[in-house]
Structures are given as C-alpha cells and as structure tokens.
Amino acid sequence: KEHDENEPEIIETNDNLFFIFETPGYGKEDISVNISDKNMEIKAMKNEGEEIIDYLYDKLQKGMTIKKSIPSFISAKNFTFTCINGILEIKFNKK
To answer: In 3D, which of 92, 61, 58, 59 has the Cα closest to residue 74?
Structure first.
C-alpha cells in the first residue's frame, strides 16, 4: 500500500500517541506545530539554504502545511516534537 506523505503514521502506546510525518529536507528548526482545540497545524519552511541546491532550496523555502484533527482523548497542551532526517515525530501524552 502506498503511504501518502501527508497522512501520518499513528502509533499508540499505553501512555502516548505518536504522529509520524515525512518532512523531507526539513529539520526541527524549520518546523512549527500549533495545536488548537482538536486541530493540529504543522508548518515547515526552510529559512537558510546553505549547501542546498538552488532548485531544492526554492521548493523548501515555499514550505508545506499539514492540517490534521487529533483524537479527543489526548491533551492538546501536552505534546513534544522532534524532527530527525526529515521524519517529524509529534508525541502526545494521553490524559
């Protein structure tokens, strides 16, 4: 099955819920995650393009936005995120 890059992989454990997104070319410093109500908005935009080929930098500078709803059983206030090698992981603690 093809995986849509804007559809997160969702992993649930006893204590946490993880959303895993593919954000190729972006690092943690390029990403902002905003949660309001039960909606999550992720914005990625490259601000500095040292050592990036021009055409790729142009694409990364335009950025991307992903909007997803989050389940009601998790707390929107209690999350952290990391982005390593273009893989964005958003970790929510369950209520």
So the answer is: 92
DSSP β-bridge partners for residue 79: 92
> Could you read off the pLDDT of 57-82 as tens digits, one per residue?
788 888 999 999 999 888 888 899 99
Q: How many residues does the chain have?
A: 95
Side chain identity at residue 33, one-letter code: V
Residue type, 92: F
| Residue type (1 letter), 43 | K
- Write the CB contacts of 69 (distance below 8 Å, at least 6 apart in sequence): 38, 39, 40
CA-wise closest residue to 60 among 68, 69, 51: 51
Contact indicator for 40, 6 with CB cutoff of 8 Å = no
